[in-house]
Amino acid sequence: MPSSKHIVVANWKMNKLPSQAKPLVAEILMSYLKKNSDLIVCPPYTHLANISANKIISGFYLGAQNMSEFESGAHTGEISADMLLDLGCTHVIIGHSERRMMSEKENIIIPQKISLALQKGLKVIYCCGENLESRESKQEETFVSNQLKNDLYHLENLDKIIIAYEPIWAIGTGKTATSDQAEAMHAFIRQTLSEKYSNSDQVKILYGGSVKASNASEFAKKENINGVLVGGASLIPVDFIEIIEAFNS
Ligand code: 13P
Questions:
Q1: Closest Cα partner for 56 from 83, 79, 33, 81?
Q2: CATH superfamily for domain 6-246
Q3: Ligand 1 centroid vs 73 CA: distance in angstroms?
Q4: pLDDT tens digit sequence for 40-95
Q5: C-beta of 171 in contact with ligand 1 (< 6 A)
């Protein structure tokens, strides 16, 4: 099993204004200090400079929600790994289902993005998870193992990879996977990875999808759930702090 330290990630998605980032982070940090879990906050790109420049990044890690597969150049509207590093980011989310759904191309370039992020020194929060159709036809394991093989198997090791299992049907829907369903999938992911990687037992696997203050402690009890990736509830400090607390014991 990985070290007992849990990871709690806030994915703000496209919410809050840059000017609201500092007070939101400050409120969360007041309660987070001295906790026994790692906290990673992933605001929109436009908020990164504000958080970084205000020197409030100590106490938690700063992450981005995506990055370009290219190093630099004529790629209008894109953000590079170097830009993220320059702003103090240590982590980047890659493969979120909301991005995979935006374009077919995203699925193809995920391995390239992961390699570039790692080469540059960013840690990757890699997202996988099945759609409703796969879950209902009991094909969820095949769906997820195909994602793992397509997206990760070019890597020699998983040292700087955090995996986030986010079933698509549970994201932003209020319909969460049960802690037993999540635990079963996490165990399956670990087992699948063990066929290729000798230290798969050290990989942190987070659950994401309608995690709330009211259900976080159920996930926290599970052996293979090493933390959570939180969307909506990470924008409400009182709820998010309760989620952090659940993963602190
Ligand atoms: P919600 O917590 O809003 O369901 O979002 C989950 C998610 O997509 C985090 O990346």
A1: 33
A2: Aldolase class I (3.20.20.70)
A3: 32
A4: 999 999 999 988 887 666 778 999 999 999 999 999 999 999 999 999 999 999 99
A5: yes
